[in-house]
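Lab notebook page, bench 4
Experiment: in silico fold of construct C2
Operator: M.H.
Input chain length: 220 residues
Purpose: comparison with the prior construct
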Amino acid sequence: MTMTAGRWMHAASSPFEVAAMQGTELPLHSRLFIVCGRSVEEDVLKQAFLPFGNLENIKLIKEKGVCFVKYDKASSAALAMESLNGAVLNNGKGPKLKVLLAEAPTPRGVQQQQGVAKLMPQPEQEVPSDPDNVPPRSRLFLVVPKTADGQLIHDELSRYPDLEYCKTDLIASKGVVFVKYAKASSALQALEEVAGKGMVSSSSSSSSGSGSSSSSSSSS
C-alpha cells in the first residue's frame, strides 16, 4: 500500500512557501538564525547544535553576535529550535540563546550592508485562524489511496513521538488523512520518512490518482 505525503495543512493554503522554494536553499526550514552574543565561540555553538542532527554548515558573525546553522533536514532544525531556544550555554554562565528559523537568501530576504550580503531571519508566523496548527508545521495532510488501511496508517504514524491524533475517517470518501503532533519536529520527521519510503508497510501496490501527490508546503 502506497502512501504519499502531501502538503502542510493550514487554515487556508497559499503558494507563498511553494514559490519561495524556487531558488531557495533546501530543504525548506532547515536553516536557523541564532542570537548568541559576541562572547561565544563557534566551537561552543557547534557542540550545542550537533546532537540534533547532521550539521551542514555553521557560520558565526561574531561582531554582530549572531550565528547561522544549517541542517540537512528540517526536522533536525525544528528539534534544535525547540530544545535550544532560551537555553543558557556554558553551564548557566551564558549566553542565553534566541533561536529562530531563517529563510535562505532571496531578493526580499537579503540586505546589503557595507558591501556584504546579510541573511535576515524570518521568524515563523502563527496562523491565528487555525489554532489546531500550533505550533506551526505540526499538522500534516496526507494523500492516500481510498483503499488504504486506516489502522495501518495510524500504527505507522504512531511510531513518531508526540502524536495527538490521526484522523482516518475520510480515507474511503476523500483519500486523505489528517495528522497532528504536539511538536513540529515530530511532524517533520514523520513527513520526511514517510515521503522518503512512500509506504507504510512492506507490501505495496500501484496507487490510485488520489494517492499521488508531490510533497509541498503552504502557509496563510
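Observations: The CA atoms of residues 36 and 97 lie 5 Å apart. The longest strand covers residues 55-61.
Next step: discuss at group meeting.
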